[in-house]
């Protein structure tokens, strides 16, 4: 009886429900000092005066550090454009200028408040298009000197990265079109709002930095700390703990380099933690963006060409954002055949908090733009919106705009059919005389392909140790996915798989919990490691059982001689025997997803070349709008999601429900607005997260077409459920009120303004 | 200031700075780290404890107001023999726990709800946790867990 496909209880669950699980915020290291940062109160300016004398003299203060105390280097994930402390230019509100370590948090904060700081404030550059005008102030005048390990890509001045794909045939298509439909779609930022605020404890010991942090990507944090402190990467050890949510925000370093510098300066452990307000202000949130789409359409209702321009807000520093301009290319021509398509995508520096990854990255607003535009075209043609989609829908073998063939894109049709069976379209789309509407959206998404390294060991009590820097950002990918894969491989109970905390000294490289990769990529590495460990076990078992290694089968927690049921030895006996003879038995395995076929000449600046391990999704939303308050009530939400194989059905359902909930927050409740370079929303009181009564139970239809390279056929599950939500809701609301919705979030004010605007098409209701 | 209160059935006497919140006393003085600090503005509910059986946000509650009273934290929800409560067990079986950071607050709120004897309809359970933010689960499996626990309780299991 395999545990694959069963609702195994996550093996870190009991500690969590008891209140025993330790997160980084719960850690207390003996002798620790408390750190606080001085952060810029303005979004742009020049530091004219900085004096820490008074601060250093305050009681309990052990160190006050500024740029003068840090190596004069630039650091960064993809482009080395970051400094540890601003010393001259200020580039965003919240940018660190100094760091204090003191005996208590109160003493540290008093010292921060005593630092004398004078800034000549400058106008903040934050309009995405104006930032690219000739004569716009440069946020990084020295941009040409910034190093990058990436191959050269188009960037200049405030343009952090530009991706251009201009295949032949676009202008011809527009020339012969019967009409052109165009739309502009905008999205505000979204804050990840994980419940555990960022914190870290750094220890300087034996010339190395040991940094405790709840990071989704320990090796990336290691690299950033090493860069900022100008030491080699192995001088830094990242030790992970339970992560209280991340959703992409905890992939890069944040507080860790500051704590490490303070620890070395004081020779004491230093704890540094964000208040919630600091965390919101400085978090690498999902970027705000503008998407303009034009489609060339024939009077017979066929899309024959398309033109897309996208502006995305980088914020003050790049992080991993240069990868993102590639996304609109993949999204603009996915799911539906639309003819030759030109895509220009621009990532722009602004005087705002650096943006970064949040589940689904820019795929959320790209899907919104593409799917709202599909509804706009269907409405212009006067045709049914579902039929219009099916007419253009991808089939097996259709290609993305980068030339990548999607061999199983026919699953999209199955997904549409599955949703139709659960929620028949004709009834929902028919005029209803009330403010009710229905919307559809589809998405094709990927799995991050980057490498995983896994080592397994057989313990002398028969348990199997899993050594990996992969971590569980909450999803259960490690404590159900990997654990279940191993339990199945060796025939042991899931509670007999011992999972280590991520530790960059002990585990090999892992690319972190991002892009839905852990079950798929780390799962494959785990299976390879299991095969190698089984060979080592078979050698020892063969001796114990006086058989040939080739005749040994590992299953049900023991080694068996094939065809001779009485000849068996348990894994614990093998573990004890090897301990006394050859030492601990281990097996290692690595995996990275192979690059799909695609055309590398399809675009310039395409740092995100293709959609590895595609998965397919269709969402339907039914809403009712209150015409007096403008509130949108989600009556029903249906998801059809292709997962390859559901290793743990309860965990899969949890990712779908949770991803949709975050999507509903993005669309209807959360708003992170920028005015003159400052956030309008500053705390959880005004950044309105969805609460329990806001989220309906999602009706999830799980499709399982095995993906050949996946462990037990599994694809990635966790990111995609958020992608089509804004699109499906936006389409439903537009249908309900007879007026196009063109921005995320859809606030009550937006709805009321649309209802009041002239020329509202009332005929659909 | 001197502070005496009962936590999870045990009396504690401690000396804390004036103006300490109940959350600070629990986490910093008594090292009961199960109750979490996530916003310090009474918005998220991760710090929920029971005071004389009633749920409140301990991050904005002054410790001195709890003097002489009885506090229950997540650590106090297990049975006297150390076995998980029916609610904790149901959370595990239904997928009610993902990252787990909101879990202590949810468990405390919901254990009070279950003990109140209120009818555990989906609507009533959902309304009972409007003060507990969860960013991972989307709430649905949490409600499933409460209904499962209530069902088992009613059946005497």
Describe the structure.
The complex is a heterodimer of chains A (765) and B (157). Chain A has 765 residues and is an alpha+beta fold. Chain A is built from 18 helices and 29 strands. In chain A, the strands form seven sheets. In chain A, strands 3-5-1-12-9-10-11 form a seven-stranded mixed β-sheet, with helices on both faces. A six-stranded mixed β-sheet of chain A has the order 7-15-14-13-8-29, with helices on both faces. In chain A, strands 16-24-25-28 form a four-stranded mixed β-sheet. The longest helix of chain A is centred in the last third of the chain and has 28 residues, at 518-545. The radius of gyration of chain A is 27 Å and the shape is globular. In chain B, a hairpin with a 2-residue loop joins strand 1 (2-7) and strand 2. Chain B has 157 residues and is α+β, with helices and mostly antiparallel strands. Helices cover 33% and strands 15% of the residues of chain B. Chains A and B meet through helix 1 and helix 16 of A and helix 2, helix 3, helix 4 and helix 5 of B.
Q: Please give the radius of gyration of chain A in angstroms.
A: 27 Å
How much helical structure, as a percent, in the residues of chain B? 25-40%
The coarse silhouette of chain A is: globular
The biggest sheet of chain B, with number of strands, parallel, antiparallel or mixed sense and barrel status, is: 5 strands, mixed
What is the helix fraction of residues of chain A, given as a range?
A: 25-40%
Number of contiguous helices of chain B: 5
Oligomer: heterodimer
Q: How does the overall form of chain B come out from the CA principal axes?
A: globular
Order of strands across the main sheet of chain A: 3-5-1-12-9-10-11
Q: What is the H/E order of chain B? A: EEHEEEHHHH
Head-to-tail CA distance between termini of chain B: 45 Å
Radius of gyration of chain B: 15 Å
Largest sheet of chain A: 7 strands, mixed
Summed over residues and divided by their number, the pLDDT of chain B gives a mean of 97
Q: Tell me the strand order in the biggest sheet of chain B.
A: 2-1-5-3-4
Main structural class of chain A = alpha+beta
Poorly predicted segments of chain A: none
């Amino acid at each position: 009886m395999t545990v694959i496909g069963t609702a195994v209880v996550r093996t870190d669950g009991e500690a969590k429900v008891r209140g025993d699980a330790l997160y980084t915020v719960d850690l207390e290291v003996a002798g620790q000092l408390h750190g606080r940062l001085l952060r810029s109160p303005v979004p742009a300016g020049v530091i004219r005066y900085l004096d820490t004398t008074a601060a250093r003299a305050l009681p309990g203060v052990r160190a006050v550090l500024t740029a003068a105390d840090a190596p004069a280097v630039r650091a960064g994930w993809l482009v080395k454009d970051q400094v540890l402390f601003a010393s001259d230019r200020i580039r965003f509100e919240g940018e660190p200028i100094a760091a204090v370590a003191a005996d208590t948090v109160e003493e540290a904060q008093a010292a921060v408040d005593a630092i004398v700081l004078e800034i000549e404030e400058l106008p903040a550059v934050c309009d995405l298009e104006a930032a690219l005008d000739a004569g716009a102030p440069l946020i990084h005048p020295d941009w040409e000197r910034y190093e990058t390990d990436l191959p050269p890509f188009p960037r200049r001045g405030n343009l952090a990265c530009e991706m251009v794909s201009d295949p032949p045939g676009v202008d011809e298509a527009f020339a012969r079109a019967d009409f052109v439909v165009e739309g502009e779609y905008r999205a505000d930022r979204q804050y990840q709002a994980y419940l555990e605020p960022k914190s870290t404890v750094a220890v300087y010991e034996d010339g190395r930095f040991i940094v405790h942090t709840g990071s989704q990507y320990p090796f990336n944090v290691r690299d950033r700390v090493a860069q900022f402190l100008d030491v080699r990467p192995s001088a830094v050890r990242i030790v992970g703990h339970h992560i209280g949510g991340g959703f992409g925000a905890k992939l890069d370093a944040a507080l860790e380099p500051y704590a490490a510098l303070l620890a070395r300066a004081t020779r004491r452990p230093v704890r540094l933690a964000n208040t919630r307000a600091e965390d919101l202000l400085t978090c690498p949130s999902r970027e705000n963006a503008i998407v303009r789409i034009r489609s060339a359409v024939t009077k017979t209702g066929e899309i024959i060409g398309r033109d897309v321009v996208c502006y995305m807000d980088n914020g003050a520093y790049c992080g991993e954002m240069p990868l993102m301009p590639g996304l609109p290319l993949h999204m603009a021509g996915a799911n539906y055949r639309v003819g030759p398509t030109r895509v220009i995508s621009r990532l722009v520096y602004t005087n705002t908090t650096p943006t970064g990854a949040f589940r689904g990255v820019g795929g959320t607003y790209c899907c919104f733009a593409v799917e709202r535009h599909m509804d706009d075209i269907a409405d212009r043609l006067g045709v049914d919106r579902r039929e219009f989609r099916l007419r253009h829908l991808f089939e097996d073998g259709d290609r993305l705009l980068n030339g990548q063939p999607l061999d199983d894109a026919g699953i999209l049709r199955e997904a549409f059919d599955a949703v139709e069976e659960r929620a028949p379209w004709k009834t929902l789309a028919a005029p209803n005389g009330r403010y009710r509407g229905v919307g559809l959206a589809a998405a094709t998404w990927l799995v991050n392909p980057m490498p995983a390294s896994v080592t397994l060991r057989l313990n002398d009590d028969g348990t199997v140790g899993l050594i990996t820097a992969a971590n569980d950002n909450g999803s259960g990918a490690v404590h159900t996915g990997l654990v279940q894969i191993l339990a199945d491989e060796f025939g042991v109970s899931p509670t007999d798989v011992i999972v280590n905390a991520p530790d960059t000294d002990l585990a090999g490289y892992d690319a972190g919990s991002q892009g839905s990769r852990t079950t798929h990529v780390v799962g494959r590495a785990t299976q390879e490691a299991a095969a190698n460990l089984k060979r080592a076990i078979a050698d020892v078992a063969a001796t114990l059982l006086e058989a040939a290694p080739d005749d040994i089968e590992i299953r049900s927690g023991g080694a068996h001689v094939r065809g001779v049921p009485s000849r068996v030895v348990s894994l614990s006996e093998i573990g004890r025997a090897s301990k006394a003879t050859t030492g601990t038995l281990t097996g290692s395995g690595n995996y990275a997803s192979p690059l799909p076929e695609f055309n590398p000449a399809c675009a310039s600046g395409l740092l995100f070349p293709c959609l590895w391990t595609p998965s397919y999704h269709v969402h339907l939303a039914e809403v009712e709008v209150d015409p007096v308050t403008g509130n949108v009530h989600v009556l029903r939400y249906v998801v059809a999601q292709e997962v390859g194989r559901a290793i743990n059905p309860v965990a899969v359902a949890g990712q779908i429900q949770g991803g949709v909930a975050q999507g509903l927050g993005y669309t209807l409740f959360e708003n992170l607005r920028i005015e003159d370079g400052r956030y309008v929303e500053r705390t959880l009181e005004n950044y309105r997260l969805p609460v329990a009564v806001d989220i309906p139970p999602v009706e999830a239809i799980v499709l399982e077409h095995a993906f050949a390279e996946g462990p037990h056929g599994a694809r990635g599950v966790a990111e995609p459920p958020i992608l089509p939500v804004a699109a499906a809701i936006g389409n439903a609301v537009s249908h309900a009120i007879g007026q196009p919705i063109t921005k995320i979030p859809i606030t009550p004010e937006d709805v009321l303004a649309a209802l009041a605007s002239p020329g509202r098409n009332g005929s659909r209701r | 200031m001197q502070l005496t209160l009962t936590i999870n059935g045990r009396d504690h006497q401690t000396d804390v700075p004036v103006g300490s919140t109940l959350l600070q006393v629990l986490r910093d003085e008594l090292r009961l780290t199960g109750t979490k600090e996530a916003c310090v503005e009474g918005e998220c509910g991760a710090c929920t404890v029971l005071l004389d059986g009633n749920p409140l946000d301990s991050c904005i509650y002054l410790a001195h107001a709890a003097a002489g009273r009885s506090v229950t934290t997540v650590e106090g929800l297990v049975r006297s023999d150390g076995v998980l409560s029916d609610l904790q067990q149901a959370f595990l079986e239904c997928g009610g726990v993902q990252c787990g950071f909101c879990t202590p607050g949810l468990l405390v709120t919901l254990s009070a709800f279950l003990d109140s004897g209120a009818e555990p309809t989906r609507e009533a359970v959902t309304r009972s946790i409007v003060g507990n933010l969860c960013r991972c689960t989307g709430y649905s499996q949490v409600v499933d867990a409460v209904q499962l626990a209530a069902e088992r309780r009613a059946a005497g299991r």
